[in-house]
Fold each of these.
Amino acid sequence: MFSGSRLQREGRLVGRVEISIPLVTWRDGRPRFFASKVHRDLGYKGEDLRHGKAGPWFTVEEAITWSKNRQAELAEKRAAIAAGETTVKKTANAAERARLAGVTTISQLVEAFLDQNPRMKGVPIIDGKKRRKPLAAATVRGYRGSARVLEQLEDGAAWHEPADDMTPEVLTGILDKVEVKHGLAQARALRAMISAAYGFGRSKVGGYIVKHNPVAGLEDTLPVLEPRIRVGSIAEMVHLVAVCDALGFPDIGDSNTLGLYTAQRQADRLALEDSRITSEGILFHQRKKGGQPLLIPMVEILRDRLVAASKRRADWRLNYPHVLIDERLRRPWDDHRYRKVYRVLRHAAAFGTLETVNGKVTRTAEQLLGKVDVRAVMDAAGLKPMPSLADFHDQDLRDTAVTWLALAGCTKWEIASITGHSLKSIDEILKHYFGLHPDLARSGMARMEKWRRTAR
């Protein structure tokens, strides 16, 4: 019995056929060329070895013939490079042009969208009664970032493919890979960029260079990101502002204070001008779509900081009208630079050092504080690292302000008149804030207990 079983297993092994053809990999009887980095550098892409996109697969004989031809091509190109007749880059570019002659590629579509779309350049579209505002700087930056993600995905495997070959199924696979590697937020951003790029390519302005938008055919929708709620404590906020001041960045301390005591978004704070400050308060006109004008009374701590900021800049030869100024460069804040500086100072406040987890110092940190002993400065000011600040973002100032207003006993109408939320949405928005802070639950139960004792 045992002997027979062993013979049967040996018989199957003897009958197995191994097919080995240079440059060809077989999977379930289907041949494919997997381009290595050396091949990709010469302009080759991985491909299924079949007749047409949906035709029959190559037979063994056809795969052998294909292999011989491809090996001859590679040898010819390498010989030309070795002889100095061309370069690897020129060879790759020539191969790409030959392969895609007359075809609009994804790279061409996206680059046309980024470089030729008037709205991406800050120019409105006006055609009769049709009006389209220029895209916000953050939106433009997001689209360009998503384009880089797509370009770098799997060494550009999809970047140079024909744009009209991008089907909903292919796009679903790309989005899945991006979500696995970069997270849900980046996958959603990439989908938005692709939809906008294909929409542009199908328009008159875009020259009708593509036939369809693959996003329209997606069967599965990406889940909505969970709302990020991070509320800073009083101790955390006092510490963060104090570290900014101690390290010579009172302008960032001013921005933090302005955010805490107006509950306004970063973009609205950075755009605020001196003329908007009146005897009755600060007049904000929110830039976000549907935003409304708000008049917010100024508290003493904020007024004192703004007066101090004005004194620091009194002898400047050129003064901008903005309330918040990048005092290192003596000009209004660029939002991109602002975020970088904010991250450096937050990290210093959290850990008392400029070094990240891997021991490196970012270029921005080196430029800003490279010669400063951060820990010594903080020790001299009586400040100890506060690790809980490591996950605090500038956008969290708005959440913190809303929660502090609620903890102070403000009604939803009072909160809405400061934050700019509509009354229709204030209940839905505040439930996230209220549900997260234990002090609100404690104060609520204390109120109920007080009522129970007095009610008869």
Amino acid sequence: MTRAAILEAATRRFACQGYEHSGLREIAADAGVTAALVNRYFGSKEGLFAEVIEQAFNIRYLIEGDRATLAERLARVMVYGREDTIERDRIPLLLMLRSATEPQAAEMIRTSLDRNNLRQLAECLEGPDAEIRATMIIAQLTGFAIMYQMLRTRALAEAEQERLVVILARSLEIYINQ
């Protein structure tokens, strides 16, 4: 319970303020604990951030299953979000946008992306250039998230959601089925 409260508070802080501008004392206060307890659970601010991004960037639940429906599953989550969350869908994007310019945070995000997204997705894809194709999928999903969730461009905001799923899935299938 306490560990989960700390992770939730840290996720909100890092997503809103970035790695550099989030302090352990503020995170601890948000969670209703002391900074010493945060250090006890996570070792340091770096350890806490690493755990936050490990959870935020884990897509195993999406890539497990039939490869034939992978493009649609990815597109559906991007358009509709996850059923069990509302704002959490934006967390990975916010973590990247707010922390990627900070060298230490960027390296931690890159490491997590490699381990939790790119490697797992590449294993699922198999075949030639699987790592490059996996990276292209994540890049496309990131770009879509920026345009759809953050900027809310007119064309995407006004489009029927099912149509967006179809178009995005078709585009992802190019990388999945090569």
Amino acid sequence: MIIDLLSREHRNIEKLLLVLERELGVLERGERPDYEVVWAVICYFKVYPEVYHHPQEDMVFKKLRARDPAAAAVIGDLADEHRKGAQRLRRVVQAVESVLRDPDVPRRTVDDMIRDFIVHGRRHIAMEERDFFPAAVKALQPQDWVEIASTLRDRKDPLFSERVEERFDAVRKHILQLEQEAEAERGWPGR
């Protein structure tokens, strides 16, 4: 089901937000974050959520608004939320690009922009999981899901599919490392 795919993508996005958060922790300790990893995560956000994930959610929301305007009103303007997220992402892109060009750029500015992006991203995902997805599952009819599915392009997630794009190798390795560390902290054996 489409909602299952969107929820799985949310979990993947959360992993990337965690990677960004960990890199900010490195910065706070006075060390140099792995800007290659940070840049790759940002590139992923520019490529996948903006081009595939959000447009698909927008289609589901359009159907929800037609089927249950009251539920859609509670959620608000989802397309505007996505636009604001894209604006935050552009600010993060510019900030990280400036750091990569000039190591003397104040890190606090970059840190604040990335934190803002993380906080709003998590808040947005939580709202969708709590309000939007259940409302869509309840209101949309089988033919709505068929119509939405028919518009999907064949898409391979460049980071979380079987075949990872080379530019995302560093991020994938970082995510695997974080998962191993989390398992070790919980006392779980490795996979």
